[in-house]
Amino acid sequence: MRYGMAIDLKRCIGCYGCQLSCKAEHGTPPGVFFARVVKREFGTFPNTQLVYLPTLCFHCTNAPCVDVCPTGASHYREGGVVDITKDDCVGCRACMQACPYGARYFNETQTGYFPGQGLTPYEQKKYAAQNVGIVLKCNFCIDRVQAGLEPACVANCAARARTFGDLDDPHSEVSQLVRLRGGEQLQPELGTRPNVYYLPPA
Amino acid sequence: MARSATSDRLLADLGATFRPQRQWVEGRGIWLIVGHFLSGVGAGTWLFSLWLGYRPGLGLALAAVALSGLAHLAFLGRGARFWKMYRARTSWIARGFVGMTLFLPGAALYVLRPGGALGGLGLALATAGAVVLIVYKGNVYAASKGVPFWNSPVLPILYATYAIRGGLALLLVALPLGGRGLDAHGVGFLELWVAVSAAVMLGFYLGVMRSTNLAAQRSVAELVRGRAAPAFYLGTVGVGLVVPILVGAAGFAGPLSQVVLAAVGATSLAGDFFAKYAIAKAGVYIPLMPAGRGPAAPAA
């Protein structure tokens, strides 16, 4: 079992639905995005192009963040999911420097979206699970997956650009998409072997 | 509105092609730089004090490494959990922690009871710990795949050179405070030699990084004409290299006073600190997508 994801860049419309649904699912503090859409403009007017790249933790098979963690808080769990044991993280942030994909965030202070007004009941409930002074990251919504659901970013993608499944199963939809559409990993030269593949638009 | 200032800056960073590294240099991150600086200086001082038979230096080394431990604790988000870092495995941070744990009790034992089997054990532990402390810092940075400017085998050598130099520099600073029995001019010339070596190593490192990938090139640009440039030119190059090398070279013309040598030591220490600070400050992460235009131009 090796969980993975394929993101179809032909289907992605850059709506930020994945980013927002992830925030709603995990209730992450301001400035923390387990899933986010990177937008870049290329070219000069009038020949310009707007490119969207939906990102998340790539749950690498050779994750550099796991190698540098001094306490073992960053670890591989079932299905190759890279996760953090919150009680073991010392907040050294070495994993943030090691991750080539910028998928980790340091939870510096417990502040909400409405400064000066305290935390909303929603924030109070969600923040209780996210300790201050440690690093946070995407875990492929492993609780949802274990309950038979898809990760929030997959379930809420309006264009069905994201497909989640078992990359070790050659008959799974995600494996077939990666094989048939020529799925590409981001920065493969780094040797991290990410388990998130991008399906090229053309 | 502290929240909006921090998160707005984070959002701006996330939107940038070359996201600047801030965690290990800004805010509480400055304590990490202080910790790395002090641990290198302390370990270097220990080794040179042993070599030169200068006992007051051993106490200084112990104090520097102890302060470095406190600085590290001040940096950690959850400092009370520091003991969990014994699970070394593949982490250079954990190896550094083990080095510090060997050094502190070993050095204290040797400083308090230099003779006998217990003193010998303390000496062995402290010396092994000092070697680990000199080696580990550069490797912590070099293991950071997300920041190509640091992800180089040259950086551990540069940091080890600076640690050795820091050790000599602290001994020079200690000269007017009780440097009898120490060959002041010998230490001064050794310091000059290591300063020149550090300058060559720094130039070599920047030369290598200039010909690496776009993110490393951008970091070099940040260092020489971007947000790390003031610390680099004033601290690392001016105070840290040019002044000690010029004053040290003047020593060939005639003996320098202990006060001048102490000043050379102090400027060398400042240069050591600013080298670590500037290199950390210049770090940028690998871009997820290539830049649209002008990748090597630093932000204003």
Structure in a nutshell:
The complex is a heterodimer of chains A (202) and B (300). By secondary structure, chain A is of the alpha+beta class. Chain A contains 7 helices and 9 strands.
Map the helices and strands.
The complex is a heterodimer of chains A (202) and B (300).
Chain A: E1 3-8, H1 17-26, E2 36-44, E3 47-55, H2 64-68, E4 74-77, E5 81-84, H3 94-98, E6 104-106, H4 121-127, E7 135-137, H5 142-146, H6 152-155, E8 162-166, H7 173-180, E9 196-199
Parallel strand pairs in A: 1-9
Antiparallel strand pairs in A: 1-8, 2-3, 4-5, 6-7
Chain B: H1 2-15, H2 29-52, H3 55-75, H4 92-112, H5 116-142, H6 154-174, H7 184-210, H8 214-225, H9 229-250, H10 258-281
Description:
The complex is a heterodimer of chains A (202) and B (300). With 202 residues, chain A is α+β, with helices and mostly antiparallel strands. Chain A is 22% helix and 23% strand. Chain A has one domain (3-199): Alpha-Beta Plaits, CATH 3.30.70.20. Chain A has a three-stranded mixed sheet with strand order 8-1-9. Chain A has a two-stranded antiparallel ribbon with strand order 2-3. A two-stranded antiparallel ribbon of chain A has the order 4-5. Chain A is globular and about 45 Å long. Chain B starts with a helix and ends in a 19-residue tail after the last helix. Chain B is 71% helix and 0% strand. Chain B is globular. Chain B has helices at 2-15, 29-52, 55-75, 92-112, 116-142, 154-174, 184-210, 214-225, 229-250, 258-281. Chain B has ten helices and no strands. By secondary structure, chain B is mostly helical. Chain B has a single domain (22-281), classed as Up-down Bundle (Formate dehydrogenase/DMSO reductase fold). The chains are: A alpha+beta (202), B mainly alpha (300). Chains A and B meet through strand 2, strand 3, helix 2 and helix 3 of A and helix 1 and helix 4 of B.
